[in-house]
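WARN no homologs supplied; continuing
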Amino acid sequence: MTGTAYFAGGTLALVGVTLVRNDLPHPILMALISLGCMIIGAFLYLRVRLLTIRAYSILVAAGTVIIASSVYLVGPSNQAVNVATLLMFPMVGAFFSFSWATALCHMVFIEFCAATAFIAQGRPDSDVLILQGAMLGVGLAVGWLTRAAAASKKDSLTGLANRRWFDERLRDLIGDAKAGDPPMSIVFMDFDRFKQINDTIGHAEGDRVLMAAADAWTKIVPPGCLLARPGGDEFAMILPGYSANRAAEIADVMRESILHETTCSAGVAELRLDDSKAMLMARADVALYEAKSRGGNLTCQHGVVNTEGAEAIHAGLAAGEFEVYYQPIIDLRFGLVTGDEALIRWNDPTRGLVPPNDFIPLAEANGAIHALGAWILREACRGTAEYIKATGVPRRISVNASGHELKRLDYAQRVADVLAETGLDPSSLVIEVTESTFDADHPNVIAMLAELREQGIDIAIDDFGTGYSSLSRLHNIPANVLKIDRSFVSAIPEDGAEVPVLRSIVALAEALGLRIIAEGVETVHQAQVLADLGCSHAQGYHFGRPNPVQQANTKSWHVHAA
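OK structure emitted
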């Protein structure tokens, strides 16, 4: 939006300068200012995917100063009023994006700059008041409409509660339930073959099915309970005063009510005393995932395998027992470290160092994976941003995302928030997904990965060759990095014999324009074979073991491609 505003404003100003060149006192300077705005706008639009609030505020203020200066340079002519109308861009941007307090500060600054430019020219007070009043009215209208839209609590398609209303109501009811100790449950529901409906019959039919389900379920939901559509084909329900068993019975009735349309899966979780909102939702999500993985058209309750395990993980996060370890990724062409894979380690005070293979599957089963994933993403991004700032050397960080995380509709926004918080450029982040751990045909997963790519974040298919590894999946998943599983690397013979499978994978990746990273490289010979095949990047114990500190480029691993 900022890039478009700068480019559009610069273009309009340049056209104006060209048309009235002979009537302007400083036409060349005005043209240069216009071209400068166009260049800034094009750079922002093409190269910058995410602006922090501070950076955006600076750009809005800078735009205000540029336009006000241009008004003054035009001189006391009618063209000055035309140029001043461009102040609508920063005014609208401020009220659209900032809080009321920040937007009003920008408004005062814009009005001050405009008034100063006009008064310096000796313009009539009427010109100043009319323009100032118009800008003020437009800004306030945009601000009010923007906040009215954000505050809306109803889904536009079905008329049910939206995610905002659901989250607010759930937070309030959890507080009430813990204060009075009555039971409370939530239900997550998801159509089993909704993508197939959209793809084969059309989105109009998909919308009709959603509205039909909403209409049928509204008649079934008990009084005092809330039915919501957070997005896509996902529905959610809060049932205060209901145990998990009673909630599951209602979910079964709701599923049966739409069997003439399609089938639906449901996951149920009952509130526990130590549950936060995130933990309760995570357990319902796990239950839904379990129902889907068992074939669908089923209701599953909470799905927690080990409640103590979930509590221990959350307690460990709160106590700072988890650490991020970095394993370097090497560019085989130059022998230099270009990035790292972020790996999580748990230093449990009673059990010592707990292997990831012990607690990651447990976290996925009990819902704690959302908290773990959010923690390592934030810490890895913060550590990498600090490394880049301290060294001035570009660095990528690869972070694994579980299938549970990718099915959350707000996952991409959460990643964007972490990048804005830590100051890491999106191009420095790689999200790794493993084929065998998520449903690549789920529309939310594909849409989420596509949204991450639009932000400028790289997507890597991890452990390639161990999952489905079909061409159709490679075509559907919006990935640009392919990680070759370590099993193929360890199978490289020491006698230099042919490696046809590896050669085929590398050729396939090159044909699809994917960057290649080979995992599990442990010997010089393996690195040399990979380089000869055309594999550009690698990681493994030969280059460095996972370490709490990121490895600097103090050593070079030279290989010579054939």
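The mean pLDDT is 84.
OK
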